Amino acid sequence: MASVEFKNVTKSFGDFKAVSDVNFDIGDGEFVCLLGPSGCGKTTSLRMMAGLETPTSGQILIGGEEVTHLHPKDRNIAMVFQDYALYPHMNLADNIAYPLKVRGEAVASRHGRAREVADVLKIGHLMDRLPSQISGGQQQRTSLARALVYPAKVYLFDEPLSNLDAKLRLEARGFLNHLQRDMGMTAVYVTHDQAEAMALATRIAVMDQGKIVQYASPIEIYRRPATTFVANFVGNPPMNLVEVEGTQVDGQLALKGEGLTMAGLPMTDAIGKALANSSKLTLGVRPEHLSLTAAGAINSISAPLFANENMGPESLVTIDRGEGARVTARIFTDDHLDVSDQVSLSFSAEHVHLFDAAGKRIPA
Ligand code: ATP
Fold it and tell me: What domain of life is recorded for the organism (predicted)?
């Protein structure tokens, strides 16, 4: 296993910078998720680690050695692709054993090793089948087995679960989590699914427009998102973001917005600095930190009910503040709520996130 480092890595396609001056390091045994919307540069970053793309500038190091211009086969990495990329004319045994074959291992020993890995992944009984004769979930595990059959320094995953249905996806996610804990592999995993990143990663690199906007543990990203972009990307449903006007009243912070009042927040130097620049702030509250309250309560937000979705153990109660500005609460309620009923949702100061006019987190 080994570490991975990006030093000022940029990748341009013509005038367009797909990855822009990225610096980050992945420790030995870490499972890092690159998370972000479509087109933010995740796959390009992964392909540069694999050696399938060459950076326009900057350096990539694996295990402390520079590999920026090294051929993929000389990097000792294993990659799992979104479309599995299995060889259609080879049975599972040959598919899985392939990395050992190209390294010159004899038939008996490479098939023995392939079988061991396949058994762990519960596809050992399918070794004679062709990829077309097994299910999508089994194909996904075959592709995983092929990556794991030879000990690599770093394992790279490009949205490996995205072709699976929801149930298989959850099962495969749990399996990957188990594997990571068991093997302690160094892995980089590209996804645009925040739940997958939260479940698997030791650290998440949230990317936007070719840059890393936050690189931290899942819990840090959930508790202290660095920007409104990150706040809105992580969490299910994502954090509610409400435009508010901030003022200082009797040495404390008061917030006002459409249907919203909040008073008595402690003033800090950081808030003072943000207010000196602009009174326009964004208040963030996660759906799980809102609860139903009486109309007119302090520290609450009120608007007509837009939707009430029963999720089994809880409901998603969404209110509409006009012009599509909606706020969703994840709550346990048996209350009957009708569309257009005025609904008030309260929150406590400890669960409030504040962002300045530029969308940057104001530290507590
Ligand atoms: P997705 O989740 O959709 O796979 P991504 O975050 O992985 O997206 P990349 O595939 O890294 O994004 O692409 C980043 C940007 O670079 C995109 O705007 C894409 O169109 C552009 N891009 C990627 N490869 C090339 C290429 N070979 N030539 C030109 N532009 C490219």
Answer: Bacteria
